């Protein structure tokens, strides 16, 4: 089999770490995500995946995060079977393949042009109303091409930390301003995670820089969204079912000062019609 030589750096290179995490999880005795397409893609890439530093525990963390975002996305599609899905910073994630949305769904994957080109070489095109857009998500033009005729769920995993706060705010405000209603589903680092970024091998070895962190998920409701779910990455219920070798490091991290809030998975709705929920 001819393998693809991958020569990316910075944030695009980090998609190999999340891909590898899903691949490792798919081979675990009790896989969380069952993403065998990730393992197939890893086998076709010529890259030293040890650079990612991903191990069984971090792979489980990656798979749990993806699973929650999958569940929220499919929940939205059950309620809105003719929705638009914008899957931003898709990397080599097979979310559209995993969820196999119905024919009524318009699905758009977005990432940088070199990532999209690799994606098209490595992954089968999902069936249905699917397309991929090669653009930075911070560029306003691509969004103006997306028809604003349907409820829209915007899902982005492993993206916000690579953007500035201003870029995240502009993105959220552009989405909220364009579509009548929908949801935004994404993960964030806390500011402690941003400060300790050099401890994350995938980020350090790719030469990527983490920028934006969020400690209070209610703080961004002023951008026109309403928080409806807030999960701490280190408190996810699935952690209890992991083998000890993965569970214990995650439990230890959760006890270290400042680490409990190192990452979150967030679900917001717009328009933010009702009063923001109080903590
Ligand atoms: C950690 S990876 C996550 C990839 C994928 N979501 C996953 O979970 O496997 C970060 C991704 O963000 C993408 N990215 C970072 N900044 C971006 C931007 N401004 N526009 C589009 N994609 C961006 C990178 O190219 C890369 O695919």
TrEMBL record:
The keyword GTP-binding does not apply. One of its GO terms (biological process) is methylation. It comes from the Bacteria. Its EC number is 2.1.1.-. It is an enzyme of class 2 (transferase). GO terms for molecular function: methyltransferase activity. Keywords: Methyltransferase, Transferase. InterPro entries: Ppm1/Ppm2/Tcmp, SAM-dependent_MTases_sf, TcmP-like. This is O-methyltransferase family protein. The lineage of its organism: Bacteria, Bacillati, Actinomycetota, Actinomycetes, Pseudonocardiales.
